[in-house]
TrEMBL record:
<dbReference type="GO" id="GO:0016491">
    <property type="term" value="F:oxidoreductase activity"/>
</dbReference>
<dbReference type="InterPro" id="IPR023753">
    <property type="entry name" value="FAD/NAD-binding_dom"/>
</dbReference>
<feature type="domain" description="FAD/NAD(P)-binding">
    <location>
        <begin position="15"/>
        <end position="306"/>
    </location>
</feature>
<dbReference type="InterPro" id="IPR050097">
    <property type="entry name" value="Ferredoxin-NADP_redctase_2"/>
</dbReference>
<protein>
    <submittedName>
        <fullName>NAD(P)/FAD-dependent oxidoreductase</fullName>
    </submittedName>
</protein>
<dbReference type="InterPro" id="IPR036188">
    <property type="entry name" value="FAD/NAD-bd_sf"/>
</dbReference>
<keyword id="KW-0560">Oxidoreductase</keyword>
<keyword id="KW-0285">Flavoprotein</keyword>
<dbReference type="Pfam" id="PF07992">
    <property type="entry name" value="Pyr_redox_2"/>
</dbReference>
Amino acid sequence: MTDTDAATSDGERSYEVAVVGGGPAGLSTALYTTRLGHDTVVVDRGGGRAAMMLDTHNVIGVTEEVSGNEFLQTAREQVESYGATFERGSVTGVERVESGGDGGGTENGDVAFRVETDGENTFRVDRVVLAMGFSDVRPDPPLPRTGRGLHWCLHCDAYMFVDEPVFVMGTGESAAHVAMIMLNFTDEVDLLLRGGDPEWSEETDEQLRAHPVDVIETEISGVNRGDDGWLESFEFEDGTVREYRGGFPMYGSDYHAELVDALGCARNEDGTVSVDEKGRTSVEGVFAVGDLTPGHNQIPVAMGEGADTGIAIHYDLRTYPKSLEQIRAEGEVDAGDVPGLSPALREAAQAFRAGSDD
């Protein structure tokens, strides 16, 4: 445990956990670490894929009319009410420092890090959670509006296009496969190459040609929208006009991995961070969750990863029970030394309980 009002000998604030990124995965991690008694700071620059959502899909208990920004704001307020600290900005650097005493966030940490932000704040922490996600690579304009005909999540939005004409943009393997997958929802699927050459394999080409997907080679020259802002049709350079309700660009992901690489965390061939089932990276004390890691890029999946990682960090850092080795070396636990959380978190928990009782 640590007291976030205290500072190291260098005047830096100390926490047990720093979460870099305030999306669903990072906020879920912070929720668990905070409620499990670990002083946690979340550094969030704002934005992100979840913030782009006009509507929230596939999250049990959250109705569709809730926007991504509303979803995230509620989550931030919830986590903050438990005692977490929020810093608006970006983390510019994380470095390993000497653990123990003033060198780390707590007496439980066998590793420690210094976290620096673009707001010129620095923290000493025991565990770092990387939750910066990625940005979808956008195709060149002309394009419809995101959420009004341009959609980034097949598993979230395919349901919206049952029996509607749909496009898929791209020239790679993923574009070809998504086009075929969309035949589960509609019988009108076009694969738009936009003047590019197909890059998928011969096997995929044979498979694609065996499905009723129209491959359109011509580049888009214009977009037509309805009064509600939704896509109605694309105009093509050959003079044709094709109607669509919406579709999916498949051009890959731009991972926000500068800190990942600076810390030396191993990455997979697809660019994701290599982690175990608890979010541990190849660097001791560093975890990664959410869209940075392999798996489905879904809010409920990210939240589950955050929960698993938060619990794993709790097991790493919790003060009690003391091991037999510690008891034999240091003696029994004195009643005056419990509970094992900081004064700041005790105060936050008492305030939260008082608010719940009102």
